Structure formats: C-alpha cells, structure tokens
Amino acid sequence: MKKIFSLLVVLLLLIGCSISKKPEFIGIDKINIVHASIDSVTIKADALFNNENNLGGTLLTNGIEVFIDDAYIATVSSEAFKVPPQHTFTVPLLVNFPSSKIFNKNNGGLLGAIIKQVLNKNVEVAFRGDITYKIAGFSFDYPIDHTEEITIE
Fold this sequence. Notes:
- The chain has helices spanning 2-16, 109-119, and strands at residues 24-36, 40-51, 58-60, 64-68, 71-76, 81-82, 87-98, 122-135, 138-151.
- It has 153 residues and is α+β, with helices and mostly antiparallel strands.
- The protein has a single domain, classed as Immunoglobulins (Immunoglobulin-like), CATH 2.60.40.10.
C-alpha cells in the first residue's frame, strides 16, 4: 500500500509540474542608449515574456543581430537567462560596440553621421534573430524582428 501511495504522489507531482504551454513572447520594449562615449556605445532593450507554467527553463539570446540605420553593428551575446515559473519577466538584451562602427562607410561616413545627428539626432535601431527557450531537452525559437527609432543625446 505504501508503494502505491508513493507512486501516486510522484505521479501527481509530475502532472502538477507539467508544461501546459511555452512562455508567451510579448515583445521588445525600451530600446535606449545606456552609455555613449567617443570610444564605445552600449544599447539595451528588454524582451518581455510571460510564463504561466509551473516550471521555468532557460532562454538563450545569442545570435540576435543589432542594426543601426540598416547597417550591421554587433551581435548580442549574454549568459543563459533562467525563466521564473508563473511570472511575467524581462530579459535584458545588451550590446556594446565601438563608436567607430556608427561612422563607417555604410552610414555615409563620418561627415554623413555627424550631419544626421546634428539635424535630427534620431537613429533607427533594429534587433533581429532568435531567442531560444530550452526545457527538459526540448527547445523553441522566438523570432525577433523589432525596429525602433531612438534619439541620441
């Protein structure tokens, strides 16, 4: 009788902790410049998710490319993010790159970049790639393609 009761408890725990559905990707929010100097620029964006499951998992953000005014700048690289169970959460997407990348030939050179910044101070930042959700040997990709205009101050 003890074995049957123990087996029943284990089965109930497994069923109660099952994955009812994958976490929901809500979108990208709050793209802004965290740091800007003559040497480097750091841009941050928040990827918003909602996890209704009793289990967490892991999100991998490697492979998301960042573009400024349609010119490739850098690739987001970060450590795996642990997904909290039954929670709405944000995954920070940070990218750091040399300032010189903004002033390359794809953007009209240094003079073109300076003129653009003086005239309107706005640049178009795009995040493109996949965020991968992994749990118990399974994985699912969330395609990311978000563009937003931000102001450089």
